[in-house]
Design brief:
Number of domains: 1
CATH architecture: Sandwich
Low-confidence stretches: 19-26
Structural class: mainly beta
Strand order of the largest sheet: 1-13-4-10-9
Largest sheet: 5 strands, antiparallel
Radius of gyration: 22 Å
Order of helices and strands: HEEEEEEEEEEEEE
CATH topology: Jelly Rolls
Shape: globular
Oligomer: single chain
Length: about 160
């Protein structure tokens, strides 16, 4: 009796391809980082950008992402976040983000002397009311000017599951 290997190979390839195609979920994420020149964040230097919201029925997690070196001398950072909805004016809020503490060290992940902290802006995911392009700006409002050892600042927006 002759055994035909073509049918099992076709089945295996078809099964593997089907598993791959149906197991992939699209992750809706916007993330943009702005590099801080010479790791010295002047209070007049704005980190700006825009993102588009199409699905107003979904909820989104919004996070601030900060990369800093181990030489950063504070456990926190004060930021001013501006957010402009489509067809509206920019609204600002002050944010105090904890980057570490004396007992446990720096929060987030680190490699060598570089640390990245991703902090959610709100306790619960937020729903955007209007579809369209949203604009944002981030600035530091710390007393030191320039604020040293900040490498980059960014924003991350992802659909909540």
């Amino acid at each position: 009796m002759k055994y035909d290997l073509v049918k099992p190979i076709r089945f295996f390839i078809s099964f593997t391809l089907a598993c791959f195609l149906f197991s992939c979920d699209q992750i809706d994420v916007f993330e943009k980082h702005t590099s801080i020149p010479d790791q010295k964040w002047d209070s007049n230097f704005l980190c700006t950008g825009s993102f588009e919201i199409k699905d107003t029925s979904s909820f989104y997690k919004i996070s601030i992402v900060i990369r800093h070196t181990d030489a950063y001398k504070y456990n926190n950072i004060w930021l001013q976040l501006g957010l402009q909805m489509p067809g509206d004016t920019m609204n600002f809020q002050k944010i105090n983000l904890a980057l570490g503490d004396d007992a446990n060290g720096w929060y987030g992940s680190g490699m060598g002397d570089i640390f990245e902290v991703r902090k959610p802006l709100t306790k619960y995911p937020k729903q955007f009311n209007k579809p369209g392009v949203y604009k944002y700006s981030l600035s530091n409002i710390m007393r030191d000017n320039p604020l040293e050892h900040i490498m980059s600042v960014g924003i991350r927006i992802e659909k909540a599951k």
